[in-house]
Amino acid sequence: MSAVLSTHGLVARYGDFQALYGVDTELGAGECVALIGANGAGKSTFLRAVMGLLPVAREMVRLDGEPVGGTAPDRMVQKGVAIVPEGRRLFTGMSVEDNLRVAIDQAARAAGKAGARAGGKGGWTLKRVHDLFPILAEKARTPVQSLSGGQQQMVAIGRALLCQPRVLLCDEISLGLAPKVIREIYAALPEIRAAGTAVILVEQDVGLAQSASDRLYCMLEGRVTLAGKSAEISRAQIGEAYFGVGHAVA
Amino acid sequence: MQWLDALIQGVLLGGMYAQYALGMALMFGVMRIVNISHGDLVILLSLIGISLASAFGLGPLPVLVALVPLAVLIGFVLQKTVLNRVVGNDPLPSLIATFGLSIALQNLMLQIWSANSRSLPGYGLESRSIEIGGIYIGLLPVIVLAVATGLTWGLDLMLKRTRFGRALRAAAADVEAAAMTGIDPRAVYALATAAAVGILGFAAVFQALRSTVAPADGPAQLIYAFEAVIIGGMGSVWGAFIGSMVLGISQAIGFRIDPGFGVLAGHIVFLFVLATRPQGLFGRA
Ligand SMILES: Nc1ncnc2c1ncn2[C@@H]1O[C@H](COP(=O)(O)OP(=O)(O)OP(=O)(O)O)[C@@H](O)[C@H]1O
Ligand SMILES: [Mg+2]
């Protein structure tokens, strides 16, 4: 398998606190990989480190084999990696449409600069995002802070898609949402993947993660404790990897 | 009649303050930088303009045309070389850096231009006035107000409608999220400061036309800009404009009550707003 994104002994710290202890992962082209783990396992840290939001060594992250660790986040976006960040991080005070336009603007700028687009070939447009989440067309002029949590999550996903990613990093997109809204959001996944975009899904809901992904990594205290095909991994294996039961920590 | 006159003079004075306040509101709104050297930059540009005028015999308009691009360049370089290193969540480093810059600029100007007061020859523009219903209105203050209104309107439109404006607002709302959306914060910051100092190019010409400038005058200009921005609500463009009007009117009315009370009246209104509505008249709480 040729990996579009891979990490090699990825280490990250917050000051003196080490949050990741050598994480090795691989994401194949067009693949969907889930990353699960308890609170504080280091899932968000992993995504932030990949995105260039934390200082990491160059060789620790590769995109199409090219070392890109520690590249600034805006450059990572241009290289085709986009993120739906933890907590959504929408641009408060701006309308739904303006939030989306920021991504469109930057993608256009990058495309203009690079001549041919260095990023993805997803061809995401405002219209396609509206087709995916029709409510966003209806609420185009609404300030994002007055949307419901689910609608805000849709804006965050739409914004990331309009960065035209080849790799999409999603951090707990189901968090705090009603089951119906979660289904609505996860229903968008096949369409996103159909464009050839590979996805890393960080997810608290193990069942959801397992059913939505091809492969799965489980993290515990900054380490990968389980990796395998989502369909083949048993609940017992996950439980053990998730909570560290019976895991002799050397 | 006397009070109407004071009101009009106050609004016109507010036009001058608005030209100071816009750039400050922009820099604070986008980067949370309170630029202590704001007033000194105005004076520096004024003095450069005055020297240009006397060296090449230029009128006010050619000076303006030369000064604004120079101001834009100064702002850009200032951000790239100094402010981008100190901008961040903590407002203290940028405060200290711009404070140091303010002192350095004042000394530099003293070296080059000496402590003398100078002004820009207006070729009669500064003394012309129009009479409306018994009230004399200076032509220059009217031009200042018109330019201030145009700048505010243009800046507001730029923020709302352009690609750059959206990037600015995004970076102001959440700079990390902006970076995750492909925005290079440092590039956006450099252009924001370029725009802010560029506006000061206008202020510099009008300041040197309507009164005299000397190297040590900067801090006083800074105070007016600062007060106007606080009154209007930090970071809002039209808020800064209205805050400038409130400040100008307060000073003009205070001046009518007692000539020594004018500037103080402005400070009192500023303190009153700060105490009762710290987010400013137009700020979000
Ligand atoms: N900004 C920070 N400064 C210091 N420590 C941090 C910071 N952010 C996270 N941590 C620590 O790093 C570890 C991993 O945190 P991280 O946010 O990556 O976990 P997570 O797996 O995403 O958890 P959750 O499911 O709760 O989002 C935790 O122990 C956390 O306390
Ligand atoms: Mg997390």
Describe the structure.
The complex is a heterodimer of chains A (250) and B (285). Chain A has 250 residues and is α/β, with parallel strands linked by helices. Chain A has a single domain, classed as Rossmann fold (3-Layer(aba) Sandwich), CATH 3.40.50.300. Helices cover 35% and strands 25% of the residues of chain A. Chain A has ten helices and ten strands. In chain A, a hairpin with a 2-residue loop joins β9 and β10. Chain A is globular and about 55 Å long. About 2% of the residues of chain A have low confidence. The mean pLDDT of chain B is 93. Helices cover 75% and strands 3% of the residues of chain B. In chain B, β1 and β2 form a beta hairpin. Chain B has a single domain, classed as Orthogonal Bundle (ABC transporter involved in vitamin B12 uptake, BtuC), CATH 1.10.3470. Chain B has a two-stranded antiparallel sheet. Chain B contains eleven helices and two strands. The interface between A and B is medium-sized, with 29 and 18 residues. The structure holds adenosine-5'-triphosphate and magnesium ion. Chain A: Pfam families: ABC_tran. Chain A: It comes from Prosthecomicrobium pneumaticum. Chain A: One of its GO terms (biological process) is L-amino acid transport.
Question: Could you name the key traits of this structure?
Answer:
heterodimer; A: 250 residues; alpha/beta; Rossmann fold; six-stranded mixed sheet; globular; B: 285 residues; mainly alpha; ABC transporter involved in vitamin B12 uptake, BtuC; two-stranded antiparallel sheet; binds adenosine-5'-triphosphate; binds magnesium ion
Largest interface: A-B, 29 and 18 residues
Number of domains of chain A: 1
User: Describe the biggest sheet of chain A?
Assistant: 6 strands, mixed
**What name goes with the CATH superfamily of chain A?**
P-loop containing nucleotide triphosphate hydrolases
- Unreliable residue stretches of chain A: 116-120
Please trace the helix and strand order of chain A, writing H or E for each element.
Answer: EEEHEEHEHHHHEHHEHEEH
User: Based on the structure given, which CATH architecture of chain B is correct?
Assistant: Orthogonal Bundle
Shape of chain A: globular
What is the helix tally of chain B? 11
Q: Looking at the chains present, what oligomeric state does this protein adopt?
A: heterodimer
Membrane topology (chain B): Multi-pass membrane protein
GO molecular function (chain B): transmembrane transporter activity
Subcellular location (chain B): Cell membrane
InterPro entries (chain B): ABC_transp_permease, BCAA_transport_permease
